[in-house]
Amino acid sequence: MKIAIAGSGALGCGFGYHLQKSGEDVTLLDNWEQHIEKISNDGLNITVNGVEDNLKMKMCRPNELNEEMDAIFVFTKSMGLKSMMESIDHIIGPDTKVICLLNGLGHLKTLENYVDKKNIIMGTTVWTAGIDAPGITHFNGQGPVELQNSDPNEKEGALLIVDMLHKSGLNGVYSDNVNYTTWRKACVNGTMNALCALLDSTIEEVFSTSTIDSMLSGIVTEFATVARLQDDIELDIEETITYLKNLAEKVGAHYPSMHQDLANNRPTEIDFLNGAVAEASKRFGIEAPYCQSVTDLIHAKEDIMGIHSAPTK
């Protein structure tokens, strides 16, 4: 299968690596020139769960790939989704499957502007990753990659992608309610990502603080309220908090992506996470003080660092 990875940062490289190792024809797409040059010349240097490897991979800018793909995995930052879809329009054919594994909320509406709904597959992953230098990444985890077709009549297409991921070692599973897992993943990023970024700490350090229970309860309650009102999704608050704590035990040494963004002077995805919950709460006539404060503090930190804030949806 011809596969493009649209947005080949840490997670994109990790997925591309696994798919190529299992025999798929993979092309990495990105706009970071140093990253492209390093991988094109020296291959991808990647450490997967502590094991180092180097793999020669094709990589170029999105506008330099000139053939239709069978499948495209989208791994941009939330605020970069629109521009990426515009730049890869020429490689999307009538049967090209587009698999979205982005953090954040509201991406299906954006994708529908560029792809027939029958070809959109939404999903979540709990694998973690990071970039150590151009062309050098690490990738960790063993959790599931949950996928579901957006069009109820297109389950067969989603199952093909699930099978491909499973065979590649990425633990693909089919979900009958990916909206639920998307909201639960948003809770992961709205707590771990945001708090680690604000406190300049690893997940383990944040989850060891004396205030973690209060912070988790406040943020998760606001996410759960909006999930119910906006998408009719029922998140069990206590179960979600338990899930977050169990996950933190497994990936505690990790600095999540929002922390990595600030460390590298890049804008964060906060407007598609806590910011999205705060804005939705206003529409419903309720307050979300935790999410609003977290969003304001992240943007304040971006301002102090001179980072151009990401546009809101």
Automatic annotation (TrEMBL):
- Family matches, as InterPro entries: 6-PGluconate_DH-like_C_sf (IPR008927), 6PGD_dom2 (IPR013328), ApbA (IPR003710), Ketopantoate_reductase (IPR050838), KPA_reductase (IPR013752), KPR_N (IPR013332), NAD(P)-bd_dom_sf (IPR036291)
Annotated metabolic or biological route of this protein = Cofactor biosynthesis; (R)-pantothenate biosynthesis; (R)-pantoate from 3-methyl-2-oxobutanoate: step 2/2
Q: Which keywords accompany this UniProt record?
A: NADP, Oxidoreductase, Pantothenate biosynthesis
Q: Does the keyword Transcription regulation apply?
A: no
Output the superkingdom of the source species.
Bacteria
Domain Ketopantoate reductase C-terminal, chain residue ranges per copy = 177-302
Can you give the residue ranges of the Ketopantoate reductase N-terminal domain? 3-150
Per the record, its GO cellular-component terms are: cytoplasm
A Gene Ontology molecular function term for this protein is: NADP binding
Reactions catalysed, as given in the entry: (R)-pantoate + NADP(+) = 2-dehydropantoate + NADPH + H(+)
Query: Key word Cell inner membrane present in the record?
Result: no
Q: Name one GO biological process term.
A: pantothenate biosynthetic process
Record function comment: Catalyzes the NADPH-dependent reduction of ketopantoate into pantoic acid.
The identity of this protein, by name, is 2-dehydropantoate 2-reductase
**Which gene does this sequence derive from?**
apbA
